[in-house]
Structure formats: C-alpha cells, structure tokens
Design the sequence.
C-alpha cells in the first residue's frame, strides 16, 4: 500500500514519447528543418487539387462547368456561397502554411548548432513560401488577415489588411528570399532564387509595376540555364518532369507514402469516353471526372489556329481507340479508332457511313450554338498536360506529376504584357513571338509571329489561353487584366446574366467569420 | 429465479460487509451492524432443534420452487415454537414434530407456506415466489443494497428476463428493458454492436458511452466479448447519486454486469442450444431492367439528349452501350440482389458446469455462437470460456476469481457495400458468359464491375479477430464482524488483428493491382482497488454502512498498421505483405493513461424509513495538466419509505410507497491522452522522389483543461399495489453538463484550427416509468407484464462561443447534439409553376424547397432544423405467460419521433446507376415525391432534402413459446429440467415512413444503411442434469 502511495505522483505524470514537443524541438537543427519542410506541405492543398482548379478555371471565358463541377462557380449564382468547402480548404490550408512559415522566421534566431549558410537558406525558403501563400490569398480574396508572427496563445480575433499592404509584404518577403536563396537548391523542389524572382515578376505585373515586372522576368530568362524546350509536348513528358523549362514545381511523387492526396489534375479535364462502344476505362486513358470542358469560344479559337499552331494537337485529344471487346461495334476491332471528337463540322452522311466502325462527335454534336449539348457530352479533351499513366491503377486518383508553378514561357508572356503596358510594343512582341515560334507547326514559324501593332491585352489573353491552358491561370489572368467581367459576359453563356463587380473577390469562408470574436470589424466581402 | 439470484447476491454482500483498514479513518466509534437479511441468514444457520416434545412423528420433506428446482436453505419452523430445521442442498429436510403441529416453511424471496401436519410423513412443498421486489438485492457500486433501502435510481434485469429469449449479445438483452437506456443497433450485420445511451447524449468530444462494470471491475472490452448466457443480473445506475461513486467515469451511467456463480451442491450440468435461420423480410424494391432503362431515358431527356418522349430504339442504341441495348431489345434483366442474398443462420451452444462444496463453489461455462448473415461468408463467431470461482478460505476470509476468455472473429468475403453495388449496377448487363463464367464488366461501364466479383473471383478477404482475457480476483477479509476489507485486482489483455486483402478482380480494385492491409492493437488495462466496508445497526433502528475506496487504474494500448499494394501473387492474400512492390503506409502509435481514485460513501437508514446516502470521490488522471489533474465528485441522496410511517396503514391496495430525491456531480471519462501538451503533427512532402517529412505545431497547448462535469437532480417514486402485484417505478431527472471539453474552433488565420477548452453546456431532462404487474397468479396459469417507457430531451445550452449556434458543426442552442439541418423539401416544381420556379433558377421536375428567408433564391439561409436522432419516447412492453408446462413471452417495442436520414431516397440523378424504384417526376407523372432524373448532374439540387424520414416504428421484437417437459418424464433419464422452445425475433414491424413498405431495416444509430429488415427464428433446448 505504501509502495503504491509512493509511486502515485509518478503515475499521474504524462509523457508523450510518440512525437517531439514543440518548444524544444524547433530550436534544434533537426526540428527547424522539420518545420521548414512542413511549410511546403500546404501548397498541395491548392496546386493539383480540385480546389485550385475550380477557383481558377470556372467562371472564365474559355471553360465551362461539366458534370460534377460546382456549377455555381461557373455561373456565379447563390450556390457560390461562403460556406462552400473549396474556399475553406484553400484558405485554411494556406493560413496553416503561413503559420508554419512564421514559426520558422521567429525560431530562426533561437536555433543552435545550425550552420549560418544553411540557416539563411531555410529562412529564405520560409519568406518565399509565405509570399506564395499570401499571393494566392490576396489574389482571390482581396483584403486578408496579415499574420506575420508565431502564435502561441489562444487568439480569437482577426483583422483584414488592405490589399496594398499585403502586396507590400509579399514584395518585402520576396526580396529577402531573393537575397537568401541559392540558384540551385540542395534538394529538388526547395525554393530557389529564380523562383522568388519569377514570383516577383508575377506580383509586379499584377500591381502594375511593369518595369520591375519586366526586369524580373528577364532575370529569370537570362541569368540561369532555363530554356524553352523545342517540343511543346515534351514539357509534360511524365518521364521527364525535371526539365529546363521548369523554374519551380510543387512536388508530387510515385511513392504513395509521400504523395498525400496526389496531383489529381488528370481527373478533371477528361471527358467521359468510356461509355462509347468499344471503349472502356483504362489507365492510359485515365479516369474521367468531367469537371471542365472548353467553351465554344475556346474551341473555335483552337480550331482556327491549329493549322499553324501545334499546341492544340500536341496536348488535346480527339481520337480514342477501341480497347473493350465486350462492346465493339459490328465493324470494329480492338485497336481501331473507336471515337472521334472534333471541333469542326463533319457531314452527317460521313457520320452515318462510319456508324458501324466508330462514333463521331463533330462540333454540331458538341455544341448547339454556344451552349453545350449536355454537361456530360463529348469534347476534345485537354489531355497530355495532366494524364498520369504511372498511377498504380486506374482507380488510384493520386497522381505523381509535379505541379509546374513557374514555367519559363510564362516569364516571356509576363515580359510581353508588362512591356505592352509600358507602350514598348516592339520589345514586347519579341517575347511573345519567342513563345509562339516554339509553338509553331513545322514550317509555320513565321505565320505564328505577330507584329507590334497586334500586341494587345486581348491578344495576350488569347495567347495565354493557348500556352497556359489548364495550368490554373485563367481566372487570375482575367482578373489581373481587368477583363473578367467583359470576357465572361462575351463568352460564357451561363455566367453572362449574373456576373457582377462583386465577383472580383471571393467570399471569405463562413468558417472563418463564424470563429472570430470581432465580427463587427471583420466584414464579409460585399455582396456575399 | 430472481430470488435465487437474490440469495446468491446476499452471500456476496455478506462477504463484503466486514473489513478493517486503519489507514482510512472512518468514524471511529461506528459500531458494527448486520443488515437485516444477514441476521436472517445467521438465524437460519443457528436454529436448533427442540427435542422435548412428545407424540412425535418424523417428517420427510422436500422444498422446491414452482419449476421443481430444489430450494436449499429454506427454513422449516414449527409454528409457535423455535424448533425447526433448514433444507439441505437438495431441498430435503427431516424433522420430528408433534402430531397436529403446523409447519411454516419460508425462504427469502418466496411466499411463506403454512402447512398443518396431519399424520403425513412425507411432504412435498412448493414455494411460490414473492411478488414484492422489495427484498431483492441490487448491486450498486462497490457493494449491494436491498431494493427497499435504495436511495438512488437503479434499474435491474436478471437473466430471467431474457433467459427464455435467445439474444445474441448483452446489448440486445438490455434493449427496451431499462427505462432511460436507449439502445439502437447499428445494422443487422453479424457481430455489429449497438449504440448505448443512458439519458441522452451530453458530450461533444468525450465519450457518451456508459461505463460497464463486469464483476466489479471496469470493462473496457467489446460488449461482443460477453456472452449473455453467463450473466446473472444487470443493474443500471442512472442518477448521479448512484454513479458518483464512479466519479470521473459516471456521467454516462453505469451498467453493472454480474455473472453467474456456482451453488452449493453436486455438479450440475446445463446444456443450452439453439439454432435457426435469419431471413430478409422481403425484397428491397429496386428497378428491373425495364424500369432502369426508362429512368435512364428520362434522365437523358432532362439533359436534352434523348429527344423522344417515347421509347425510341434509335436513341436507345445511341445512349445505351451495345450490351445494354442488346438486353433491352431481348427483354433481359439480371437480378443481382437475388443472386446475392441468402438466408442467414445462427446457432449457439453452451455447456455449464456448476456446483460447490463448503470451501469452494464454481461455475464454468463454455459457449460457441456462430452467425452467418444474409451475405454469403459474412460471419460472426464467438467462443467464450468463463469461470467464476468463490473460495471460503476461513470463517473470516473469502476469495474469488473471475476469468473470461473470449475469442471472436468477424469475417467477410465481399465488401460491405455488396448489396448496394448489386442494386446500383445496371440490370441490363450480361454478367455471365454462355458457358457460365463470370464477366468482370457486365456492361461497357468500366466503373461498374460485376457486383458479385468478390465472390466470383474469390478475391476479397476481411478478417477481424479478437482475443480477450479478462481476469480479476478478490480477497475479502472480515477484520471485525462489522468491518470488511476487500482487495480487487483486475487485468485484461486484448489483442485485435484486422487483415484484409483485395485481389485484382475484386469489386473495389476494378482491375487494379492487388492490395492488402493489416492493423493490430494490443491493449492492456490493470486495476487495483481496496474497499473497506463498515456495516452496523445501532439500537435496532439506526443502520449505517460506510465504504472507503482507493483505486488505481492503468491503461496502455499499442497500435500498428501496414497497407501495401501490388502484391505479386494475390493468392497469398494478406499473408505475405512484405512481397508487395509498394508500401502505401505503415504506422504505429501508443496511448497510455493512468487514473488514481479515492472515494467514500456513507449510508444511514432509520428503520428503513428515512434513508440517506452521501458519497464523495476524487479522481486524478494523467491526461490532464499539472494543476488540473484532480476532479471532485460529491453526491447526496435521500429516500423516505412512507409506508413505514404510523400515519399510513398498509392496505390491500397499497403495500409500498417510497419517495427518493438525489443530487450529485459526476465526470466524463476524461480526454484522450496527450491532449493538454500541444501536439506536433507530421506532414508529408517530397523532394523529387525522396521523403521530406516534417513536423509542425498543429494543436495549441491548453494547460487549463479540466474535467467535464455533469450534475444530476433526480426525483423518484416507487410504489407497490395489491401486495406487490403491481410494481411501479418513476424517475424524473434534470442533468446539467458543464465545463464541456470542446474543441473550440479558432480563426484559422492563427494557423490553428482548434483548441480543446472547457466551454459549453448541455442539458438533459427526462422521465422514466417502469411498471411490472402480475396480472394472473394462479397455480397453473401465470401472466405478468413489464412495461418500460422513457423520454429524454437533450439540449445544447451553450457552445464555445456562448449562446450562438455553430452551423459548421450543426450544433444549435436549444437542440439535441445530433440534428439534421438542411433544406426543407416542400414538393417538386410542377409544370404549372414554371414561371415561379424560374425565379429560383429551377425548372419543373426539380425539388422545391422552402424559401425560409424569403429571399427569392435558394441559399444557405434556407436551411433549417428538420429533426433529430433523438426519439420523442421509447416504450417496451413484455408479456410472459405460463400455463402448466407451457410458457409464452412476447415483447413489443416502440421508438417514436426520431428523424432518420435514408441516403437511398436521394439517389444519383443520372442514368448510370440503378436505384430503388422511387416515384420520380416526369412531365406525365406530376408527383411530389422525387425529382426528375437528370443525366447532367451527379445529384439532384438539394437532393438530400428528399431523404429525411420520420423514424418512428413499432416492432414485435421477440416472441417465444416453450414447453417444459414434465418431471415425471425427465427424471427417468436423470434430467432435472428440460425445456424446448421456438422463438422468433422481429416477426412483425410497422414504420411511420415508407421504410416498412420498402422492407428496410428502420433501426440505425446513424444514417440508414441499405439492408432489408431481418426476421429470425430459432428452435432451442435447455437441459439440466
């Protein structure tokens, strides 16, 4: 009994040996490195995920909402409510990322036993990542809370900082990152100096500091060994993801333990091919979630330019081959063309004549004017950028493609746009033509070139639609250039009647507003 | 039977009474006291025969109960004298008495008999059970008490209440029997257990499960480990005055399970067996091929693809794949569910050996229970061996041991959703080739494999095995006649091993590489308790029982798991996980906690008229931070036996009247370990293909975290009418749970999602009624009825942000914890309403929901509370009839007023999947039931609003009819008792919603699953020899 009494106090001591304890761990070099690696994790809640695609693809001029899409994100109706989980997932993920960066920055001076060089680079990574997170937040939401310190006690208030202040902080962080980061990282995927400069170029372009935007785009183009690949399709060769056109990428991997959620982009742009005769799901064709399809405007643009521009044919898919013996047409064999989906007109008698050999969807069976025939119809599919045949099976949705956040051709387009805005058409046109020449079909290089007087913001937007299709640029591009309302009203029939000025910012997630105690000060974006 | 239990429990009680433990200072001048029943017992044993009478005759007698079971220890006294004897182990007695004397034969719990002796030498005396339950002994925490001395709210059932009904588990045995205890099954899958709630839910984060005490020791196993045949009695402590002695673990009520003890006497063998089928009520009405095709066409019409309002084979050919089209043309339809479902089967066999001699008694029971459900290969098997030993080591020292060894296995050869898949899959497929071999893809849809693929390719395994050993031992030392010390030691070891493997041609792999997984857990709990009990009656009227307790509990659990894919030889199933090419995940974890407790209780009774119980417990838990480890839980209860007052005379119609009132504070079972420390969580990332794991702060430390507390006020009234033939118990209560441990959600801009805090407040109020009546009590015919009825109103009073609703968690002030918050469907937009529908961006055929905020649009503000999982009331009526050797029992159960979500009433809206045959809108069928199918969207807009149903139902839960073979017949084959019976479970039910019409099981603890209701028949036999 006495023995039991004696050890009583010990029994009530709790020791958690399963994980390290925050306070001590983060001040060690190992813990500090753990924290820095954690700062990257939340990029995966946006890039390569449905959240990121939905926020950047829908409600634009070049995409429509397919089956399974959140239609409200496309047509700007009441379902685009603050309570929608996609807003929350991005917002909450990024603020957790920011808090992790803040902890890195506040612990930096307390870490003992780490070399100065390594410490500085890690600090630079945190500044870079914090800027990344804030840039996406401010881009979508406008004024957002600007938290810059590690938080250790319960805090239930929040304050929205003006957009300019947030951009100011982003630039400040990026300039620090630029000074601290190396040209080439110790581990592939860590932040680098050119990545910081590429983001600076983007941010300066957004904030209309066009000369700086041009300077930084040029630095990235000229100061490193990046180069445009000759073959546009080769950029997305899944066996060659580390290539000279990639400035910096969010990392996904084939090791499922490290892949957490994976890059799911392969699901979203794919049409439902597998219900057609002779075809069934397979891993090479992928798993179709039918989220986005090209608008009539976009398909027409692709069709009009394909004679000289290789990008449509290299990246988009029009032909599917028979792979399913159980559902073959009468005059069809395995491996034959089973489905042809094209953005042009094919005479009905040709379609009828081929009915026993393969199925044809021409533009009139895809579109009725500007309105798609059904949300689950067949469309030419943006394919090669996202398809992921390396997944272990077709039901595995966790893809292994890295997400290219900064690609060299974007730097050329930034330079072109910034120069155009400064009235430097001649210089600007050089940059855009470089990108266009690379995209040209053999022998059509000069057809692709444009003259300085053709360089307009609309032309640049069309060029970005062709070059950066499906890479999470469209909505931010339209917003940045002030063209969102105009082009959506022109080309997106579903959004046309509803899109308003208020839609230039997203609603603050309900979950955020519900939790703060100073609700009188922290207001929802108007209209939501 | 009940009184036999009473007798046994009295013995246990007696053993508990004496102890001494000087470390714990009680009231020093407490004088020892025996309770009244102990005096009676002592009296029995010390009766001496008076030899002085003349004209003697020798009486040979046997005392048996109405079942013919001998009653040992019955008192036989000559009226008006002190001479008499006691019946022996076989109920036999010899006594010399004067001619013409009158014998009085009595035994606790039985009505005394007066027998005038003529000149008969042989007497067969049958004692009938006493109707009044007042002398029954009830197990309360750390001791027992006579029912008439109870001050708290305690309800009991004994094995008698479910002995005649084959029940698979303890949860099923309890269902409906205890007012206030709501037991809801979580499906009809073999081995599934129920959700058990006493007086509602009170906690958001901590557990709402009652504490289970098995033979005096907290039971942290699966309720599936306990075999109901081993149980002698179950006592449920409901109010805080009763549960406060369990302190930090008492808030959700305490269920005390006592297993059967051996009895004095030669070995007695009892064989109990039953077996029988489990059958679906009927078919779930799903669409056949023709209906499926027509619904598909309608979905395509809505999407603008199928341009003909009539069936059109050109369009059919375009929109159905060639296989489906061929089967439409041929009029084929394949009925997968019928190919899947079988009749289930269950059986149970138990052999018990019990007996005892002076120094030891024993009860050893081995049991096998197996059950196969409606899906082939879906099995639950349980094997238990339970041993209960009691030793009388000396006149002052008693000891005992309980050993329960349990092994159970659940297995499946198809994934859980196999029935759902069978219904979802297009009935227009061709699932088998002409030679009978199965086709993995019956249609062109690559995502709809053969729903029975798991069976056809034998490609699925799920095996969940558990081994558990629960051991506990006690020693009772009678330090003084009135002071008893008892030490309890308990330990358990639980192993769980869950393995699964899915082959390439399993339904879920869809041709992908094989996967396998393993997860296992090793858990161990140990317990030490010292209990000191001081029991004495002063001056005949002042009865005092004081109890002091010191206890320590330790718990440790280790967890491991591995998941792999790309197993090279899938025939190795999960037995060669190391051969896999890809490791998806590996993990392990540890959870440890300790609890130290001190408690004291004082009972004072004056003439059994005024009764008072005070208790206090303090618990220290390792999970809390330094300054908040200890929680304090006091209680007080008073009772007044009005019948003992002079101003009231017991009359024919009123034989007992008692009022009780109590107040107490109890705690919840604390929090998971490590939660006050502020945790780091691991994050995943990669540098190209190399690991880049990290750690970040994910939880803010909160060192102020303390115990969650529940205070309960309880008023109870018990009365007995007509000499105990009507027995009524009523309770009304109010519980207030405060300092709720809740995850307070933080503005995520801080980087932290939530922090555990003591915030918030819930309330439960309720009323409980239990009525037991003996309607007919004649020699040959007896009919009694047990009614239980209860209602509970659960309410959130305050949340982390005060009296503000938390819509994100669907928690609302003034509402139960689990409510359904959604749009309210008020119909389907009809063609005549086209213009109005368009204002809401809807069109005819779509769901019309209530525009709650009258904004003219459908938005989040239109959602409202549609109902809750809490029933308005639950009632259960059990009737038992015996006529000569026949017995008949049936139980009717009513659960009323809850809302249930039936996902299958909200089907996917496209053509792709098959569904239940629902009445959906078409331009020619202007129904308000279900919306028009639409191939353009995955689900209907506000589709969930069509799936809420009133969950009220009534069912005939049990019906059994038995026949006890006459002893004249059985004695010839040395069998003392033999009963055969036929029993049915859930033979009939009625639901307020259409679930009954759909043959759906109406009882679910969460959302309704897609399972038909099941009725069960068994044929059983019990033999003792």
Sequence:
């Amino acid at each position: 009994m006495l023995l039991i009494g004696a050890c009583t106090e010990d029994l009530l001591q709790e020791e958690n040996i399963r994980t390290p304890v925050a306070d001590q761990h983060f001040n060690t070099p190992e813990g500090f490195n753990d924290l820095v690696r954690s700062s990257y994790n939340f990029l995966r809640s946006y890039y390569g995920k449905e959240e990121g695609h939905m926020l950047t693809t829908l409600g634009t001029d070049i995409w429509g909402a397919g089956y399974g899409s959140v239609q409200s994100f496309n047509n700007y109706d009441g379902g685009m409510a603050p309570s929608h989980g996609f807003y929350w997932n991005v917002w909450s993920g990024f603020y957790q990322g920011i808090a992790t960066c803040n902890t890195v920055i506040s612990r930096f001076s307390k870490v003992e036993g780490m070399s100065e060089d390594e410490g500085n680079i890690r600090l630079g990574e945190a500044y870079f990542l914090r800027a990344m997170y804030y840039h996406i937040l401010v881009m979508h939401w406008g004024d957002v809370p600007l938290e810059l310190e590690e938080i250790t006690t319960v805090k239930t208030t929040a304050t929205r900082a003006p957009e300019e202040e947030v951009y100011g902080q982003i630039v400040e962080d990026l300039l620090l990152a630029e000074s601290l980061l190396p040209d080439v990282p110790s581990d592939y995927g860590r932040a680098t100096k050119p990545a910081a400069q590429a983001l600076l170029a983007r941010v300066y372009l957004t904030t209309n500091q066009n000369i700086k935007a041009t300077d930084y785009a040029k630095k990235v183009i000229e100061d490193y060994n990046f180069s445009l690949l000759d073959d546009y399709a080769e950029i997305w060769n899944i066996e060659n993801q580390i290539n000279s056109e990639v400035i910096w990428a969010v990392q996904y991997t084939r090791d499922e333990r490290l892949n957490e959620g994976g890059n799911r982009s392969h699901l979203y742009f794919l049409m439902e091919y597998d219900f057609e005769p002779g075809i069934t799901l397979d891993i090479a064709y992928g798993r179709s979630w039918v989220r986005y399809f090209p608008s009539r405007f976009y398909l027409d643009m692709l069709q009009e330019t394909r004679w000289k521009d290789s990008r449509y044919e290299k990246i988009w898919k029009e032909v599917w081959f028979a792979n399913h013996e159980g559902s073959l047409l009468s005059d069809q064999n395995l491996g034959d063309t089973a489905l042809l989906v094209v953005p042009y007109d094919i005479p009905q008698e040709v379609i009828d004549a081929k009915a026993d050999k393969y199925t044809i969807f021409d533009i009139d069976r895809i579109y009725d004017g500007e309105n798609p025939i059904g949300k689950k119809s067949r469309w030419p599919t943006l394919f090669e950028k996202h398809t992921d045949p390396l997944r272990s099976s077709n039901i595995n949705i966790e893809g292994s493609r890295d997400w290219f956040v900064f690609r060299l051709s974007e730097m050329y387009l930034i330079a072109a746009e910034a120069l155009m805005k400064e009235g430097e058409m001649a210089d600007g046109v050089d940059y855009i033509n470089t990108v266009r020449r690379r995209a040209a079909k053999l022998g059509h290089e000069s057809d692709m070139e444009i003259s300085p007087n053709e360089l307009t913001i609309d032309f640049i937007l069309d060029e970005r639609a062709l070059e950066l299709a499906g890479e999470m640029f469209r909505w931010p591009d339209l917003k940045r250039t002030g063209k969102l309302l105009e082009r959506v009203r022109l080309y997106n029939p579903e959004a046309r009647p509803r899109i308003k000025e208020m839609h230039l910012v997203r609603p603050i997630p309900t979950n955020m507003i519900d939790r703060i105690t100073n609700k009188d000060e922290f207001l929802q974006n108007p209209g939501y | 039977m009940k009184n036999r239990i009473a007798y046994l429990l009295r013995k246990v009680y007696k053993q508990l009474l004496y102890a001494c433990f000087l470390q714990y200072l009680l009231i020093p001048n407490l004088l020892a006291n025996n309770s009244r029943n102990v005096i009676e017992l002592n009296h029995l044993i010390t009766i001496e025969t008076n030899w002085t009478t003349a004209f003697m005759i020798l009486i040979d007698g046997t005392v048996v109960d109405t079942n013919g079971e001998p009653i040992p220890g019955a008192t036989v006294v000559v009226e008006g004298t002190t001479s008499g004897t006691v019946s022996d182990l076989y109920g036999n007695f010899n006594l010399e008495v004067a001619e013409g004397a009158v014998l009085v034969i009595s035994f606790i719990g039985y009505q005394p008999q007066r027998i005038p002796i003529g000149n008969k030498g042989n007497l067969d005396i049958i004692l009938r059970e006493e109707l009044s339950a007042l002398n029954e002994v009830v197990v309360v925490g750390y001791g027992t008490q006579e029912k008439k001395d109870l001050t708290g709210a305690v309800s009991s059932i004994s094995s008698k209440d479910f002995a005649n009904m084959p029940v698979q588990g303890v949860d099923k045995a309890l269902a409906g029997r205890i007012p206030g205890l709501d037991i809801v099954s979580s499906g009809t899958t073999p081995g599934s257990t129920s959700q058990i709630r006493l007086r509602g839910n009170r906690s958001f984060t901590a557990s709402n499960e009652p504490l289970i005490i098995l033979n005096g020791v907290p039971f942290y196993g699966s309720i599936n480990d306990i075999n109901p045949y081993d149980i002698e009695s179950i006592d449920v402590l409901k109010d805080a005055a009763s549960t406060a002695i369990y302190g930090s673990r008492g808030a959700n009520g305490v269920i005390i399970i006592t297993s059967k003890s051996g009895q004095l006497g030669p070995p007695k063998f009892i064989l109990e067996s039953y077996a029988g089928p489990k059958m679906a009520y009927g078919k779930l009405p799903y669409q056949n091929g023709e209906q499926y095709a027509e619904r598909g066409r309608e979905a395509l019409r809505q999407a603008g693809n199928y341009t003909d309002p009539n069936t059109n084979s050109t369009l059919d050919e375009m929109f159905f794949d060639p296989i489906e089209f061929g089967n439409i043309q041929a009029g084929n339809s394949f009925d997968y569910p019928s190919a899947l479902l079988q009749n289930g089967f269950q059986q149970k066999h138990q052999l018990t050996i019990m007996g005892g001699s002076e120094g030891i008694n024993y009860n050893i029971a081995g049991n096998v229970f197996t059950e196969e459900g409606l899906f082939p290969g879906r099995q639950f098997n349980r094997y238990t061996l339970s041993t209960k030993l009691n030793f009388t080591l000396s006149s002052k020292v008693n000891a005992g041991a309980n050993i329960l060894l349990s092994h159970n296995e659940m297995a499946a050869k198809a994934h859980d959703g196999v029935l759902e898949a069978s219904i979802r899959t297009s009935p227009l497929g061709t699932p088998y080739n002409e030679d009978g071999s199965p086709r993995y893809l019956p249609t062109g849809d690559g995502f709809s494999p053969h729903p029975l693929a798991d069976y056809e390719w034998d490609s699925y395994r799920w095996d969940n095995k558990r081994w558990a050993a629960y051991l506990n031992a006690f020693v009772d030392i009678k330090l003084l006649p009135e002071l008893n010390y008892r030490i309890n030691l308990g330990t358990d070891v639980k192993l769980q091993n869950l393995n699964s493997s899915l082959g390439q041609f399993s339904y879920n792999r869809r041709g992908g590489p094989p996967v396998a997984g393993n997860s296992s857990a090793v858990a161990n709990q140990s317990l030490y308790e010292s209990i000191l009990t001081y029991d004495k009656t002063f001056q005949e009227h002042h009865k005092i029982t004081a109890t002091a307790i010191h206890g320590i509990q330790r718990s440790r659990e280790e967890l491991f798991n591995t998941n792999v894919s790309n197993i090279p030889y899938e025939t190795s199933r999960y037995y060669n996980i190391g051969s896999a090419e890809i490791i998806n995940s590996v993990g392990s974890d540890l959870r440890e906690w300790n609890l130290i407790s001190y408690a004291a209780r004082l009972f004072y009774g004056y003439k059994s008229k005024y009764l008072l119980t005070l208790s206090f417990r303090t618990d220290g838990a390792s999970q809390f931070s330094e300054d908040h480890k200890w929680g304090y839980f006091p209680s007080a209860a008073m009772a007044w036996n009005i019948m003992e007052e002079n101003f009231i005379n017991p009359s024919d119609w009123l034989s007992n009247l008692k009022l009780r009132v109590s107040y107490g504070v109890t705690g919840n079972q604390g929090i998971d370990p490590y939660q006050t420390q502020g945790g780091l969580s691991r994050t995943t990332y990669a540098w190209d293909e190399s690991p880049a794991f990290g750690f970040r702060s994910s939880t803010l430390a909160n060192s102020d975290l303390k115990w969650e507390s529940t205070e309960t006020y309880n008023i109870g009234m018990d009365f007995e009418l007509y000499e105990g033939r009507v027995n009524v118990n009523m309770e009304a209560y109010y519980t207030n749970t405060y300092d709720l441990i809740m995850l307070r959600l933080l503005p995520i801009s801080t980087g932290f999602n939530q922090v555990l805090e003591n915030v918030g407040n819930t309330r439960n109020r309720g009323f409980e009624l239990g009525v037991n009546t003996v309607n007919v009590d004649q020699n040959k015919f007896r009919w009694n009825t047990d009614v239980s009825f209860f209602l509970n109103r659960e309410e959130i009073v305050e949340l982390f942000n005060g009296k503000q609703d938390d819509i994100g968690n669907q928690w609302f002030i003034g509402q139960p914890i689990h409510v359904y918050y959604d749009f309210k469907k008020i119909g389907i937009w009809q063609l005549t309403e086209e213009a109005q529908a368009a204002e809401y961006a809807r069109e005819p055929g779509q769901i019309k929901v209530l525009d709650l905020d009258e904004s003219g649009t459908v938005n989040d503000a239109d959602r409202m509370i549609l109902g809750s999982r809490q029933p308005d009331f639950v009632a259960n009526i059990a009737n038992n009839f015996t006529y000569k050797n026949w017995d008949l029992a049936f139980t009717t159960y009513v659960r009323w007023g809850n809302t249930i979500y039936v996902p299958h009433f909200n089907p996917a809206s496209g053509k792709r999947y098959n569904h239940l045959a629902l009445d959906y809108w078409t331009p020619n069928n202007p129904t308000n039931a279900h919306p028009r199918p639409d191939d353009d969207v995955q689900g209907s807009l506000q589709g969930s609003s069509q799936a809420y149903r009133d969950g009220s139902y009534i069912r005939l839960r049990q019906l059994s009819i038995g026949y006890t073979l006459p002893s004249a017949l059985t004695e010839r084959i040395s069998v003392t008792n033999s009963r055969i019976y036929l029993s049915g479970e859930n033979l009939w039910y009625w639901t307020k919603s259409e679930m009954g019409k759909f043959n759906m099981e109406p009882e679910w603890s969460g959302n309704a699953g897609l399972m038909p209701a099941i009725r069960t028949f068994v044929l059983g036999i019990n033999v003792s020899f």
Remarks:
- Chain B has 13 helices and 50 strands.
